[in-house]
Amino acid sequence: MSVHFQREIYALKKHLLSLCAVVDQQVQLSVRALIDRDEELAREVRKRDLDIDNREVEIEEECLKILALYQPVAVDLRFIVAVLKINNDLERIGDLAVNIAKKARTLAASDPVAIPFDLTGMSEKTQAMLRDSIDALVNLDAKLADDICGRDDEIDNMKRDIRHQGEEMIVADPAQTKILMRLMAVSRNLERIADLATNIAEDVIYLVDGKIVRHQDGD
Questions:
Q1: What is the pLDDT of residues 118-170, one digit of tens each?
Q2: Could you tell me if 183 and 166 are in contact, meaning their C-beta atoms sit under 8 angstroms apart?
Q3: Neighbouring residues of 194: CB distance < 8 A, sequence distance ≥ 6
């Protein structure tokens, strides 16, 4: 491929990794807004979402331009396909961070309440999965990506436990229903972020090894 093509690929990688950093920070800020009951920080997360949307569109347009101009094949084509998929997953993670921020704003405006679930532990594990998926992408580390895929079940189990706890607490104290439902919604958002981080890891495996591991069970 030409020097121009290589420059386009380099610029595309740079833009994707920049989006990764912005999305990772959005998740961190949304969780902090929830834990710290910081209404202003929650508003900031919502404001920053437009930037993520704009970046996602720009990256998609870059990919389509490269496909049209250079018609890449083999490894280069795999890279463009992986970028398109990862780009979409990052934008969806940004939307989920906004959902958490919305819940944070509502809870911040309510009477203080102790969070009865291990949302902090769940958020830390979810954020670690997201950061590691980005590291796997940066370093083209298929082994790390495979490890991330194996960690998704733990997040699923945590969400399931939180749902069961929440349902029991609602039965015991119906007056807490609204607050508990919002906190359970946060756990669902975190679980979806973990799913999307897993998607990114699977795309890294595809990019490095050419293997599609999505929908595969077992070893």
A1: 899 999 999 999 999 999 998 999 999 999 999 999 999 999 999 999 999 99
A2: yes
A3: 125, 126, 129, 130, 151, 152, 155, 156
Note the pLDDT tens digit of each residue in 74-91. Answer: 889 999 999 999 999 999
Tell me the torsion sign for CA atoms 140, 141, 146, 147. Answer: negative
pTM score above 0.70: yes
Nearest to 136 by CA among 146, 144, 128, 126: 144
Structural domains in the chain, sorted by start = 3-209 (1.20.58.220)
Residue 134 corresponds to which tokens in the numbers above? 């980005």
| CA separation, residue 28 to residues 42, 45, 207 (Å) | 11, 10, 27
> What burial letters (b/e) apply to 106-138, b meaning 16+ CB within 10 Å?
ebbeeeeeeeebebeebbebbbebbbbbbebbe
Residue entry with tokens 């949304």: 30
To the nearest 10°, report the CA torsion of 159, 102, 34, 144: 50
Q: How far is CA 40 from CA 96, 120, 143, 170, 182, in A?
A: 18, 20, 39, 29, 19
Rounded-to-integer distance, Cα 55 and Cα 135, Å? 20
Task: Strands of the chain (E only): list them.
Answer: none
- CB distance 58 to 24 below 8 Å: no
Q: How many CA atoms lie within 13 A of 163 on its CB side?
A: 12
CB 189 within 8 A of CB 96: yes
